[in-house]
Amino acid sequence: MLQAQEILVERYQLQRVLGESAIRQTWLAWDLIDQEQVVVKLLMASDQLQWDNLRLFEREAKVLRQLDHPCIPQYKDDFVLEREITYFTLVQEYINAKSIKELLSSGKTFSETEVRQIARAVLKILIYLHKLSPPVLHRDIKPSNLLLDSSKNKHQVYLVDFGAVQDKAAAEGATFTVVGTYGYTPLEQFGGRATPASDLFSMHWGRL
C-alpha cells in the first residue's frame, strides 16, 4: 500500500489521504516540480476492479484534458504506477475549499440569497459543459461534489469529481454505464439515458 511521504514518478509526494474505498484512493500531494499542492486519484488494479470502473476512470482523464474553466479543477497528469499493485493514476489541481456537504454537516445554514448565488454559479458551469461539442454531462451533481470558497466575502463555487462524466449525450436507443447518487439522479439516468437536463435535475437546492 502507498504511504505518506512516498514520491510517485519522481514528482508527486503523497501527504495525506482525502478519501478511499476498496479500489480507490485519493491523496493530497505536493508537486515537487511546480511547487504546489495537487490531488492524486488512484484506481487499484485488484480483483475487485471491473471493466466499467477502468473505463470511467480513463474517460474522466480524457474529458478533464479538454476542459478549461476556472471553476473546474485543471487536469495535470495521468500515468500507470507500478508497485506491488498496479495503480491507474490521475493528477488534478487542488482546490482549498470545503464541500457544501461538509459545511452543512458542520451546522452551516444558507440564506435564500446565498442559495440563489450558488445555484447561478453551478448553472454557469453546466452551461459551459453542455455547450461543448459533444456536450459533457457530469452525472453526479450533489453537495459533496460542490466546493465553496467564501474567503473573499463572495461565494466561489467549484464543481469537482468527474468520475461519472459522460462526454456525449445519450442517443436514442443508446445505453451507458449507470452512475450517480440515489436522491440526486433522475430516473432516465438510472435507465442509462442521461441528457443535459439530467444534470439540472440533480440540483436539489431545497436541501440547503
Secondary-structure topology with pairs:
Layout: E1 7-8, E2 12-20, E3 24-31, E4 36-44, H1 51-66, E5 75-82, E6 86-93, E7 98-99, H2 100-105, H3 112-130, E8 146-149, E9 156-159, H4 187-190, H5 196-201
Antiparallel strand pairs: 1-2, 2-3, 3-4, 4-6, 5-6, 7-8, 8-9
Can you give a write-up of this model?
Residues 169-175 and 186-191 have low confidence and may be disordered. This protein has five helices and nine strands; from the N terminus they run ββββαβββααββαα. Helix content is 25%, strand content 26%. It has two domains: 7-93, Phosphorylase Kinase, domain 1 (2-Layer Sandwich), CATH 3.30.200; 98-207, Transferase(Phosphotransferase), domain 1, CATH 1.10.510.10. It has a six-stranded antiparallel beta sheet, covered by helices on one side. The protein has a three-stranded antiparallel beta sheet with strand order 7-8-9. It has 208 residues and is an alpha+beta fold.
